[in-house]
Amino acid sequence: MSLKASKEVVLSDQKLHWWQKTIAYEIYVKSFKDSNGDGIGDLKGITSELDYLKSLGVGAIWLTPCYVSPQADNGYDVADYYNIDPAYGTMDDMDELISEAGKRNIKVVMDLVFNHTSSENAWFKESRQSRDNDKSDWYIWSDKPTNWRSIFGGSAWTYDEKRKQYYLHTFLSEQPDLNWKNPEVRKAVIDVANFWADKGVGGFRMDAIPYIRKPDVFKDGKPDALDGMVSVHTMTANLDGILDYLNEFKQAVRVGRDIFTVGEANGVTADELPLWVGKNGVFDMVFEFSHIQIDLPDEKNWCEKRDWTLPQWKKLFSQSQIKTGEQTQGWYPMFLENHDIARSVSHFLADGAPRIKGAKALATLLLTMRGTPFLMQGEELGYENVVWPSIDDYDDVFSKSHYEFALSEGYSEKEAMDGVYRFSRDNARTPMQWDSSPNAGFSTKKPWMSIHDDYKVVNVESEKKDSDSVLNWYIGLSKLRNNHPVLINGTYIDLMPDDEKIFAFRRENIDARATVLINLSSETALYDAYLVERAVQIAGTEGTSTVGRLSPYEAVVFEESSVEYIVLNQDKEGVLRDFIYEAIFVPEGEEAPDRSIIEKPEISMYYKDFGSMEADRCIVAKKGTRAVGAVWTRIMNDYGHLDDETPSLAVSLFKEYRDSGIGTVLMKKMLSLLKSQGFKKVSLSCQKANYAACWYKKLGFRVVVDKDDEYIMVYDL
User: Fold this and answer.
1) Based on the domain organization, do 469 and 615 belong to the same domain?
2) Is 304 a catalytic residue?
3) What residues contact 97, with CB distance under 8 A and at least 6 apart?
4) Is residue 523 flagged as an active site residue?
5) Across the strands, what pairs with 165?
6) What pTM was estimated for this model as a whole?
7) Are 23 and 488 in contact (CB under 8 A)?
8) What residues pair up with 62 in beta bridges, in sequence order?
9) Residue-wise pLDDT tens digits, 646-661
10) Total number of domains constituting the chain
11) Are residues 358 and 258 in the same domain?
12) Over the stretch 141-152, which tens digit does the pLDDT of each residue have?
């Protein structure tokens, strides 16, 4: 039999969009680069550093809000969605940024703050005037407050003297919540998004989205702290009906445009992701925070810290990968930092971990995981958290409110400050460090926020010159992604889910298989060298790595090359039909049955409808390390059973092959046929708690990956 090689089908039939293949970079506009010497970052400053961003492989820059704002919450209180705040520049500056970025194939992504506005917004000013004006129900008003605590502390309701009612604010009192139940409000925010889309932006990040759907009835909740209040998050996050609003937005803004949307979806679980992203989802991606908040048992209380293990962390990633995988046609925004959370080196690594090695290890995770990587400015330099002596040194209103909350709950000042050190949003907001000059090259004037103490060493200019720097490792990883597409479009599988030291996973497409191994511990870690057998190292933080061994915080990437594939798609040349006949229905030493046997409907279904199957179920790898008999697997799934008396797989499809030993005969025939065709290995998975595992072992299969309830087994041909 002749099995012909083809490359007409990729492992995933999902055509990747530009935003799935690039790197996104978050810019905290106020802290990136000051062009006019006022100590505040601005749009012209960003334009001046576009070539730097291009060197990182960035294809999308997400700008934190730069609209007109009183700055009660650093721009997340929008007074005018249609104009640029004078502190950041003008609309002409924005047009120039969009244009210049476009010349470098970089898209600008705007931050849409639609759960709330500023109390200085014209919409709110009109709404508060009376109970019967045109915008009277554009916000959430009530005659009586509930016991809800705002995210930033204190009551989520504020009394308005003009209207003689309370208004709801999930965050600050200066940030009143919009009433999305009102169709006029939904149209207004859609108009804003379309205005910016028409300007040529490449997409939108949508802030605080879980809170836009409020309950139909406002009532008190069960208190969760000594203040007698309950978090507004508990009472309003992700309520039924929210997806209807977001679907309406998607149809009016996203559909028909080559842009992307990513929602901030705090509280959305991995199981809920298929409702939010993918073919039937409301966003292209969502930031969900399970892996970020693994050490935070109570979001309102930074003094409490939860211990966690690497297997627990890996499981959270795997759950999200599964729920945004090929079955849902979803996509994952891979991130470890943003403007609201701590620096990853300080957050996820053990105390005392070497900054450079640790940052490189996390960078490897960030840029090789399936999904679009989102970097926070400064992450590529290996920033650590700041540690300032007094709460007065911090700008973040969230940090100040948590400090006061901690003291009111009976914690000491030291305990309250320790929580601020761990979780303050200011950790991610310090000005960008461009060089070792005064003010770190960010501005010629004293910056609006203090520079990190390490700026003379940790800065762009210094790290560019150091070939072993964190920055150059990021640049190298970016190039690696472009040169090895498997790191962009490959599938994902966690290889060592229970290992306490190593984060290991595989990326695979029709052309290659990459294996990523990252030691996130301070000790030497070992792994089975078989995982990278016949693979070549394509990247490593310690140079050439010793196979089977990782030094502390070492990261290495391997790839198997020159893998040929046989694509069994629609069986246009009868290849699959012949494969079924010779592999399964011609036992050793017996006369072959009439070939018409494989034309029977119950058999032909296995080769006539392969075009409708997932692509990776239709592939057999030749001369590679993966060789899965897709046909055999499928028939066994449907018709195979285990004989009760002997641990032998039996085929019950035909009467003449029902004796207890036929399974062994057929499997040996299959293995022999694969070997004759040049295959090197056969891999399969099976449940640990059944006879099949024992039977495969007796045939010579060996366990490669031992999961909770499943073996991945391999037979060397």
Assistant:
1) no
2) no
3) 43, 44, 46, 47, 108
4) no
5) 160
6) 0.80
7) no
8) 26, 109
9) 222 222 222 233 233 4
10) 3
11) yes
12) 999 999 999 999
